[in-house]
Amino acid sequence: MFPNRIVCLTEETTETLYLLGEGDRVVGVSGYTVRPPEARRKPRVSAFINANFEKIESLRPDVILAFSDLQADITAELVRRGHAVFTFNQRSVAEILQMIRVLAGIVGVPAKGAALAAAFERDLDAIRERASALPRRPKVYFEEWYDPLISGIRWTEELVEIAGGDPIFPELRDKALGKDRIVEPAHVVERNPDVIVASWCGKAMKKRTIVERPGWDRVNAIRGDHVHEIKSTYILQPGPASLTEGVTRLHAILREWDAS
């Protein structure tokens, strides 16, 4: 028997279940859930690093879906309380696609999962093909946080490449933890990106904070006014949003740079 009462502690599994046509199985969601809009009507049971255990238990879940080491304390407590917990840890585009297939298997609709993942792959290939027609590839600094500066996690850097750019810190892309992707402001200046894309997790980007950093007036992206924001819900969510809205916005930003 497959689970029919599912609690999702992050947005990407919620959105995936809805896209699979299985959204009615979701009985609880993260408070940060935005996509799809109808999921916001579900009971909200968690933030990102804390949860309301009593509320979760009141929903009588068959399985609870979590994400990454950041939710390890939550999941450990849920396991101690006797709940079945599945924790995903996708960090790349390929792993996001695999998450979709695995989740579909968990709920008993593997064919739907394979079809959805294949559709995303086709769409990514189409963007990659359009990007290959651009005459120039800009150097891109993707900023995941501003104090300290944290460069993009692997899937964001891969999406930059698919969209038509070259990340300026490729050596950091495989570092799963944010603390291992901290960069010095001077190193950004040295690598001189043509485009800066900021997505501060859960916080609106303040352009002035970036452009007024000491010495950054020499950076091509600042001089050319190519500093952009993509909301974290579109690009830092390792699920359908990043493979659709996120990469589409990245591609539009890079096309705008090319046309300048």
Describe the structure.
This protein has 260 residues and is α/β, with parallel strands linked by helices. The protein has eleven helices and ten strands. The chain has helices at residues 11-19, 53-58, 72-80, 93-106, 110-132, 154-163, 185-191, 207-211, 220-223, 232-235, 240-259, and strands at 6-8, 26-30, 44-46, 63-67, 85-88, 139-146, 149-151, 166-167, 195-198, 227-229. The strands form two sheets. It has a five-stranded parallel β-sheet, sandwiched between helices. Strands 6, 7, 8, 9 and 10 form a five-stranded mixed β-sheet that branches. Strand 6 (139-146) and strand 7 form a beta hairpin. Helix 4 packs antiparallel against helix 5, helix 5 (110-132) runs parallel beside helix 11 and helix 6 packs across helix 11. It starts with 5 loop residues before the first strand and ends with a helix. The model has no long low-confidence stretch (mean pLDDT 96).
How many helical elements?
11
Q: Largest beta sheet: what is the strand line-up?
A: 3-2-1-4-5
Order of helices and strands: EHEEHEHEHHEEHEHEHHEHH
Q: Tell me, rounded to a whole number, the average pLDDT.
A: 96
Q: Brief overview, please?
A:
The chain has 260 residues and is an alpha/beta fold. The chain contains eleven helices and ten strands.
Topology (elements, then pairings):
Blueprint: E1 6-8, H1 11-19, E2 26-30, E3 44-46, H2 53-58, E4 63-67, H3 72-80, E5 85-88, H4 93-106, H5 110-132, E6 139-146, E7 149-151, H6 154-163, E8 166-167, H7 185-191, E9 195-198, H8 207-211, H9 220-223, E10 227-229, H10 232-235, H11 240-259
